[in-house]
Amino acid sequence: MLPVDQPADPTNAERIALGTDELVVLADCAHTNGDIFAVLLRMPPGGGPPVMHRHAPSEVYHVLEGELVFYVGRADGAVDRVPVRAGQTMPLAGGTPHTIRNEGEREAVAFGVHSPGAAMEGFSRAAAALAAEGSAGSAGSAGMEAVLTIAEQHGIELLGPVPEPA
């Protein structure tokens, strides 16, 4: 049985800055026995992870406002571009190469769940701390090496730039 403290209140919730994106923490691993990391993702135009990546946890996103574009790798190595509008949901099985972008002209907001949650929560917190220290934003390979190390420590494989969609 999972502990239930109280409903999540996004107005008072912890916020994690990842580049220009913001994660509003609705449920963390400490309160879900490591099973779930649930967030409200706020992504401005042009936002999103800089590279394709994959990890063991599965994810599901329900877009509340705007539109997110998911780039999803296929078994044959091709990549599909999948626009997901407000009211639509995008599931991603663990191990699927992917990334997310806001290619629109206004902020996109989505409810996202990672399960199990520890890898994504750990990576998000570590990457935000690195950025706050200024290491991730520093020019050259030192900042990227630090991000690669954090990703590897949390079971996230960075796959490189988004290829042209199939």
List keywords for this structure.
166 residues, 11 strands, 6-stranded antiparallel β-sheet, 3-stranded antiparallel β-sheet
Describe the structure.
The chain is of the alpha+beta class and 166 residues long. The protein has two helices and eleven strands. The strands form three sheets. It has a six-stranded antiparallel β-sheet with strand order 1-2-3-10-5-8, with helices on one face. Strands 7-6-9 form a three-stranded antiparallel β-sheet, with no helix packed on it. Strand 1 (15-18) and strand 2 form a beta hairpin.
In short:
The chain is α+β, with helices and mostly antiparallel strands. Helix content is 17%, strand content 39%.
Produce the secondary structure layout.
Layout: E1 15-18, E2 21-27, E3 37-43, E4 52-55, E5 58-65, E6 67-73, E7 79-85, E8 89-92, E9 98-101, E10 108-115, H1 118-133, H2 141-153, E11 156-160
Antiparallel strand pairs: 1-2, 2-3, 3-10, 4-11, 5-8, 5-10, 6-7, 6-9
Helix pairs in contact: 1-2
Termini separation comes to 44 Å
Give the beta-strand count. Answer: 11
Percent helix: 10-25%
Strand content: 35-45%
Uncertain parts = 137-141
Order of helices and strands: EEEEEEEEEEHHE
Structural class: alpha+beta
Based on Cα principal axes, name the global outline: globular
Strand arrangement in the largest pleated sheet:
1-2-3-10-5-8
Query: What is the number of helices?
Result: 2
Mean model confidence by pLDDT: 89
User: How would you sum up the major sheet?
Assistant: 6 strands, antiparallel
Radius of gyration, whole Å:
15 Å
